[in-house]
Design brief:
Elements lengths: L5 E2 L5 E2 L14 H12 L1 H16 L6 H7 L1 H13 L4 H13 L3 H27 L7
Antiparallel strand pairs: 1-2
Helix pairs in contact: 1-5, 4-6, 5-6
Length: 138
């Protein structure tokens, strides 16, 4: 009686006692969900990164033209978020759901940051309409 050989996914034969290397985390279901959440924060980065950069360069004496360029996306967001900010409830829910299911502590921390960014974008329309704020003059 001959021992049976295990066949790896690539088709190469391996002996019965060997194990295949662990699958990379990003290729697991948990990693895929983390990656999807990382992609969903792109709108927040398009708004918050120019605001942060402008806050860093304004005290140094940056020219007004640079500050105007950095303010384009935040200005567009200021006009659009009161109407479309409600859609960020879905990424917020997804980030919290994945955070609850995630086993890796570093990934859980990043998912918490993702959820906080989504919560800011959900809170802005609520604040805008509840406070009776008006659109800024152009």
């Amino acid at each position: 009686m001959t021992p049976s050989l295990n066949v790896s996914p690539e088709g190469a034969e391996s002996s019965p006692g060997t194990t295949s290397p662990p699958e990379p985390w990003i290729e697991t279901r948990e990693g895929m969900r983390f990656f999807a959440n990382a992609l969903l924060i792109a709108p927040e980065f398009m708004v918050f990164f120019p605001l942060l950069l402008a806050a860093l360069v304004a005290p140094v004496g940056a020219p007004d033209s640079l500050l105007e360029i950095l303010g384009v996306m935040p200005t567009l967001a200021r006009f659009a978020l009161p109407f479309v900010g409600w859609f960020f409830v879905v990424p917020l829910w997804f980030a919290l759901k994945v955070r609850r299911e995630c086993q890796r502590p570093v990934a859980r921390r990043f998912l918490g940051v993702f959820a906080a960014l989504h919560a800011c974008f959900v809170a802005y329309p609520i604040w805008f309409w509840a406070s009776g704020a008006s659109f800024p003059a152009t």
